[in-house]
User: Fold Acetate kinase from Benzoatithermus flavus.
Amino acid sequence: MTDTLLVVNAGSSSIKFQLFRLLPSGHRLELRSKGQLEGIGTHPRLSVRDAFGRTLIDESYEAAAVPDLTAAMHRLGDWLLERLGGRTPVAVGHRVVHGGPDYGEPVLIDDLVLDRLEHLVPLAPLHQPNNLAPIRAIRKRNPAVPQVACFDTAFHRGHPEVADRFAIPEAWYREGVRRYGFHGLSYEYIAHRLEEIDPALARGRVVACHLGSGASMCAIHAGRSLDSTMGFTAVDGLPMGTRTGQLDPGVVLYLVQAKGFDAKRIEHFLYHEGGLKGLSGISNDVRDLLASDAAGAKLALDYFVYRIAREAGALAAAMGGIDGLVFTAGIGEHSPVIRGRVLERLAWLGFVLDEAANQEHGPLITSAASRLKAYVIPTDEELMIAHHTLRLISGRSEALR
Ligand code: ADP
Assistant:
């Protein structure tokens, strides 16, 4: 065993990971290194940097040498063991997209838990199997290492029933057809950070905007999630890089009945042909759209900003008012243009932008004259997972640092 904690975030073709050191008091975590094994099954490449950005390894492999996530986890495990002098991490925390109706907290993984998470695969067929494969690979190789599952849905489990339901019969709800909400680890981190940055606002009504290649918004009242723009799956709500966001289900019926689309074709349509890419016909990347003069690029950005502002109004209504707003994730943290345009649309609520602070990425980007505050807060889902993992293996709960 070591003083090292591993955080794993596995997707369809990559495993991102971070190593944290438990500081001597055992209460605090310090980033040691972060990296990824990407291009699994196509152009596998393992790259890791230390906390100062220095390269520790940058190695490519034959596709056949790292054909799937299990092989990738083994490859990564070899590197880790070598790096840690043959000793295993003290625990591994995993990002798991779906905790279903029952898991409102992270959980220590055992056979029963793994079995229950397996049963949730139909709720997130594109993500859940990828999250579970590394867990199984580690259990097989190092059964004694404690592993913790941290869910993207957990932070939203306390939603009031009206936010948790669709207007369909009860039996479907009991079967699990609910508005789960996602990006929960990001929102939970934001809620904790806000307590440190602006404790008064953290006790109030906040609309948090996680604007990355996946995008959603969350109504957070006194640190607890009340509603989210994402629902049963991570395709609902805001338009995203390539996901449509909210769409009348009648459109899907039309595609089936008039165009003969089957389930696979519809999945591709919803997840890969929509959003900024679909609207613009140019790119899923906000940077490309901002740099383009094309009418499609302008429309895509107009639509994105419009929907963010519209959802902010809806989430404020869910909370009975709004005291502030937080921007986070790739676009939220790095694009003053998008932030400025959203706040301009929300001027009626009482936001007054501080243009210079916005260009500097805040953290506070509203002026002294603004009735409501808006912040830019970089998210850190991995640190959140590391803290949950530490808490579960040690029974301790510490402030996020
Ligand atoms: P993921 O959901 O993949 O973790 P991120 O949170 O890293 O995504 O966000 C990725 C997105 O952030 C990119 O698709 C890009 O559109 C956007 N982005 C990153 N940097 C900038 C920037 N400087 N200006 C505008 N958008 C940016």
